[in-house]
């Protein structure tokens, strides 16, 4: 149970970071901001997979 809560909080934090990046970059990059947010989420997913926490 504790691991699930930790994983949920990690995912939530990563999504908030991605949202923040997209909101910051949107005025300059428009749809490119969505790509940047996707890169943040993908990088977090790859790091989690390498640590074996998925």
Describe what you observe in this structure.
Helix 1 packs antiparallel against helix 2. The longest helix is centred in the first third of the chain and has 28 residues, at 2-29. It is elongated, with a radius of gyration of 13 Å. The chain has helices at 2-29, 31-51. It is built from 2 helices and no strands. The mean pLDDT is 77. The chain has 54 residues and is an all-alpha fold.
Could you outline the blueprint of secondary structure elements for this entry?
Elements (H helix, E strand, L loop, with lengths): L1 H28 L1 H21 L3
| Estimated structural class | mainly alpha
Shape, principal axes of CA atoms? elongated
**How large, in whole angstroms, is the Cα Rg?**
13 Å
The proportion of residues in beta strands is: under 5%
**Largest sheet geometry:** none
Q: Detail the poorly predicted runs.
A: none
Order of helices and strands: HH
Q: Give the % helix.
A: over 70%
Number of strands: 0
**Number of helical segments?**
2
**What integer is the average pLDDT?**
77
Distance between the termini: 14 Å
């Amino acid at each position: 149970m504790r691991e699930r809560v930790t994983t949920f909080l990690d995912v939530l934090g990563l999504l908030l970071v991605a949202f923040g990046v997209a909101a910051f970059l949107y005025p300059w990059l428009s749809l490119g901001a969505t790509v940047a947010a996707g890169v943040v989420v993908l990088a977090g997913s790859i790091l989690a997979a390498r640590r074996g926490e998925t």
